[in-house]
Write a structure and sequence with these properties.
By secondary structure, the protein is mainly alpha-helical. It has 22 helices and five strands.
Length: 475
């Protein structure tokens, strides 16, 4: 009898409060699972062109895997565990569920902009531009296209790309950078933001050509272009140029995608006073003057007029007067960098980059598209109401129409009569969106389907990161 009593008291019964605390966490999990599954169902239903098959399916699979792992972890908490221990365990688990929810919401909000009537037309055009720019080098290399970057309207002045190795600001709180970096490398859904001005003035979608260049450099040949392009810059211009490898690659890529109009658009973004144009304090970029002159030289070597795309920029005038920053004359470094521009531009346009060949090979670049009488010039006239063009569904079509739209705006903005200028601007806004969307390549945009062991490995890494002890947030 005594033995029976001792055995009974050594395993205390689970209190209703402890059980309810565990059930609460299970309800949180099931509510999140239902919300994600319902969003996936509606998103797939609304994807009539089957444009986001890979992105939605990838996200659903990985989030579902994580929820299953957390579910198993909840149920593994012993019923006999003390109340304090149960509360500690559930608190940690609910933090993990919040992280899963944050990851889902991060992508969900960007997908769901397509349901906003004010944003949907521009995003449809942006999707076509991204596909045209991103898929091209993979097709040229004869390999499957990875999950395509998702464009979205960002509340930011400048467009930006978020590759999987650069954690977005929205997800930085509560965790350390190492955890976040490792987490996002296992979620292969790159995104690209563009500023709200492009909604009403879609020719500024031109900046997507640069941003998609970042994703191409990161993804093509397992990122081999990152080192290869940086090596070329350093060999031609020295170590200083190597640090600019990501941005200058994206600049070159934008020229290959939409021609000299990439440079014309960039000048709009960086134009400023001499001290601003000569500021080289950002280690990712050369100063704006060097960057523009470099792009102009590359454009000329590609066979179209890069000098005109500089929009009258006068290098001598910018360097005529001192431009001081912290007792340093910015002209000295800019002059030295300008002295290397021609050599570097020659190197990057003639180099062969492993499997990709030259940059021109990689982008399937055709100079004739950008010459007078070429496709871009003809589309530019049509968009200004000076002719007609019939859309076609080639892979390059959407980006060429975009370049033509920038060219059309460059002409319209110089219309002397203000009322006439406004009328022509509104007509271009409408026709450009319609023409880009009408030029879409009509194919189902399924990306490369990873092998089962590749998916399992990625999921296991993701779960391992999430189920480890998260860094405690500050109180």
């Amino acid at each position: 009898m005594v033995t029976q009593i001792l055995n009974a008291t050594s395993v205390p019964a689970t209190s209703p409060g402890t059980l309810e605390r565990k059930n609460q966490t299970l309800r949180v999990l099931e509510s999140l699972r239902y919300a994600i599954n319902e969003w996936v169902r509606v998103s797939k239903r609304n994807d009539t062109n089957r444009q986001y098959v890979t992105q939605i399916s990838t996200l659903a699979t990985q989030l579902g895997f994580l929820l299953d792992k957390v579910d198993a972890q909840i149920r593994a908490v012993p019923a006999s565990q003390s109340e304090r221990s149960t509360y500690s365990a559930m608190r940690l688990i609910e933090r993990r569920l919040l992280w899963i929810q944050r990851i889902w919401r991060y992508f969900q909000t960007k997908f769901d902009q397509r349901g906003d009537p004010a944003l949907a037309p521009t995003l449809k055009a942006a999707d076509e531009i991204v596909w045209s720019c991103y898929a091209q080098p993979f097709r040229a290399a004869g390999v499957a296209v990875p999950a395509v970057p998702l464009p979205f309207v960002a509340l930011a002045f400048s467009p930006y790309a978020i590759p999987r190795d650069e954690p977005p600001q929205e997800l930085r709180s509560d965790v350390d950078g190492g955890f976040l970096n490792a987490m996002l490398t296992q979620l292969p859904l790159p995104v690209t933001g563009f500023p709200p001005v492009a909604v009403d003035e879609p020719w500024w979608l031109a900046y997507l050509a640069h941003e998609i260049g970042h994703h191409v450099q990161f993804d093509l040949n397992a990122g081999a272009m990152l080192g290869a392009f940086a090596d070329t810059l350093e060999a031609a211009g020295g170590a200083r140029w190597r640090g600019w490898g990501k941005e200058l690659f994206a600049d070159c890529y934008s020229l290959l995608m939409i021609g000299p109009w990439a440079l014309w658009a960039l000048a709009e973004l960086v134009w400023g006073e001499p001290a601003d144009m000569l500021d080289d304090s950002n280690p990712r970029y050369p100063c704006a003057l060097v960057r523009l002159v470099f792009m102009s030289d590359v454009a000329n070597r590609l066979g179209f007029d890069g000098t005109s795309a500089l929009r009258g920029l006068n290098v001598e005038n910018l360097l005529a007067a001192p431009a001081m920053s912290k007792n340093r004359d910015l002209r000295i470094a800019a002059t030295a960098d300008l002295g290397n521009v021609a050599h570097v531009a020659q190197a990057v346009t003639s180099a062969r980059y492993t499997q990709s060949g030259t940059l021109q090979d990689m982008a399937q670049f055709e100079r004739e598209d950008f010459l007078p009488g070429g496709n871009v010039a003809l589309w530019s006239k049509a968009l200004r109401g000076e002719g007609a063009m019939v859309p076609n569904g080639y892979l390059k079509s959407a980006r060429l129409v975009l370049g033509a739209g920038v060219g059309a705006w460059s002409a319209i903005r110089n219309t002397a009569d203000e009322a006439q200028r406004a009328k022509r601007r509104l007509l271009l806004q409408e026709k450009l969106i319609e023409s880009i969307v009408a030029s879409r390549e009509e194919i189902v945009r399924l990306a490369h389907t990873p092998a089962a062991d590749e998916v399992d490995t990625r999921n296991d890494r993701l779960a391992g990161l999430l189920l480890a002890d998260l860094p405690e947030p500050g109180m």
